[in-house]
Amino acid sequence: MPYVEPGHPSELIEATGALFTRAYDAAPRVVARAPGRVNLIGEHTDYNRGLVLPVALAHATYAAVAGREDGVVRITSGDDGEPWTGAIDTVGPGAVDGWATYVGGVLWALREDGFDLPGMDVLVHGTVPLGAGLSSSAALECSVALAVCGLLGLTVDDELRHRLVRACIRAETEVAGAPTGGMDQSISLLAQVDAALLIDFDQDSSRAVPLGLAAAGLTLLVTDTRVSHALVDGGYAARRADCEAAADALGVPSLRQATLAAVEELTDDRVRRRATHIVTEIERVRETVDALAVDDWAGVGRLFAASHVSMRDDFEISCPELDLTVATAVEAGAIGARMTGGGFGGSAISLVPTERVDAVVHAIDVAFVAAGFRAPQHLLAEPSGAAELLA
Ligand code: ADP
Ligand code: MG
Q1: Judgement on whether residues 196 and 221 belong to the same structural domain of the protein
Q2: What is the pLDDT of residues 108-164, one digit of tens each?
Q3: Phi and psi angles of residue 168, each rounded to the nearest 5 degrees, phi first
Q4: Are 57 and 139 contained in the same domain?
Q5: What's the 53 CA to ligand 1 centre distance in angstroms?
Q6: pTM exceeding 0.70
């Protein structure tokens, strides 16, 4: 199969329900889905109070939930042995193991926000590749958060979605221990179909930016290098610390308030290059939005290229597999390509004339074989809608 398929929602709802019934001997009460995402541009800018421009994927995580009377929480994905089991009033930082931490983290954060939660059985299943820089972690958190709201019978309005964004961010940063900045949870819960979401972390606001990809004859190709990246490993936190050091040295609350002229005066070479990436990347997000408004796709391609160079040379979060993907995609006909997500592996995104997609995929595969790299995986990013309650 050339592409990682998103799957059909109706089949995935059914499969998730069947897995739940097999694991827990009863049908779920609620099923919710939440999408993964790919970021068009604006990397590591979220925690610098900057701008990002992600798109929700059709690939999503499905969470099935049923309440329990006894205050017990069980968490499984159906294929990992015995469910994690604990008590609802003890889930929280340090109390949950393995990947179930993300789920326990959401339950903890919702309780911290004042929701009164019963015990429950939780099962998750889905099609977002794990650890590929496509935000399976936020898809997991947001699907569970929304399913829990369904269990509580809450109306899913805009205000609730924003509350869930904050709870899922707390789950990821305070319980799972990944110091990410909030882009992933925001796009998963606030996305709109056929659009990217421009999120401003200084204003705490977002708006849809329409993407006329089909009309322009273009496709967003995502290539997962399958080089493992783990946000909890330290590289991400080190970049975040460098950004804070730069803001401190400049005497500004965050790099959003820094000018390039001021950044160029920083004396520490590494900190200056990190800050240069952030300040120029925020500007590139603005320019991408402007280019999209007038269908200047060639301009978007140039911004992708500049973003990749900035991440490779100044922020130093690329790797040989990502650099090869980007270079090969452009040689084979992509209008632009860049690494996307937190870096240190993960995925690249290429903007490709639709009739060239298969040729670009083939060229990347061949280049990986020639370089002796493990075969990558590809998927097509169809700009999709936000997390939703299904049943
Ligand atoms: P990304 O968000 O880019 O996929 P992360 O390292 O942030 O990468 O999150 C990946 C981790 O999230 C996985 O290693 C696993 O712990 C957890 N996870 C996400 N989705 C699932 C799932 N459907 N089932 C089990 N664990 C999951
Ligand atoms: Mg993640």
Answers
A1: no
A2: 999 999 999 999 999 999 999 998 999 999 999 999 999 999 999 999 999 999 999
A3: -70, -35
A4: yes
A5: 21
A6: yes
